[in-house]
Amino acid sequence: GDSVTQTEGQVALSEEDFLTIHCNYSASGYPALFWYVQYPGEGPQFLFRASRDKEKGSSRGFEATYDKGTTSFHLRKASVQESDSAVYYCALGSSGGNYKPTFGKGTSLVVHP
Amino acid sequence: GPKVLQIPSHQIIDMGQMVTLNCDPVSNHLYFYWYKQILGQQMEFLVNFYNGKVMEKSKLFKDQFSVERPDGSYFTLKIQPTALEDSAVYFCASSLISSGNTLYFGEGSRLIVV
Description:
The complex is a heterodimer.
Chain A: E1 3-6, E2 10-14, E3 19-21, E4 23-26, E5 32-38, E6 45-50, E7 56-59, E8 62-65, E9 75-77, E10 86-93, E11 102-103, E12 107-112
Chain B: E1 5-7, E2 10-13, E3 19-24, E4 31-37, E5 43-50, E6 53-57, E7 65-68, E8 75-79, E9 88-95, E10 104-105, E11 109-113
Parallel strand pairs in B: 2-11
Antiparallel strand pairs in B: 1-3, 3-8, 4-5, 4-9, 5-6, 7-8, 9-10, 9-11
C-alpha cells in the first residue's frame, strides 16, 4: 500500500538556520504530494502541494519539489523563524481511487531564538 | 481559508458510554474524513465517507465506531460503547473531490474516557 517516510522525531534549529525535512513516498500511480503544518492545540493546516514531476510547491518561504525519480518531496526553508516551530506532515493523495490520504509520522520543528 | 468546525472541542466520558463527535465540513465539500491522534503521536486515518457511504476504513475503525451525515447536516463519528483506548484527539477533515485534493481540518475534539 501507499506509504510516506519523513525525517523522524524532532529537528532543533536556531533562527535563520536552513531547514530540510526529508520526505520519501511509495505509491502506485501518480499521487499528489502535500505538506501540512500543525501548531500546538490546532488541527493540521494545508501548506502547499505539487501534482506532477518537477513541480515546485511553496508557501510562507517553505518549498518542496516533486521528484518522481527519487520519489521525494523534501521540505526546505532558507531561514527559519521561531514562529515556524510546529509539526510538519508530508502526505500523499492518490488520484487512482485510493480514498485514504496517507500521512507521514510528522516531524517536530523547534526553532530557538 | 475554508473552515471545518468540530463540536465539542473536548469531552470527558465514562467508559462504556456513547459519544458523538460532530463535524461541520466546508460547505461545498463532498468527501469527509476522521483521523485519530493520541497525544504526541502521529495522526492515524480512521475512515472516509462520500455520498452517504464509507469508502475506506482502517483497522482502528472498530465495530463500535460508526459515521453518518444525515440530510447534509453534521458529519458525525459515534463511538458506542467507548473504551479507555479511545481517548485521543479526533480530527475531522473535508475535501472538495477525492483524496487527491487538499484536506481541510477542524481543530479537533479531545475525548477523554475515564
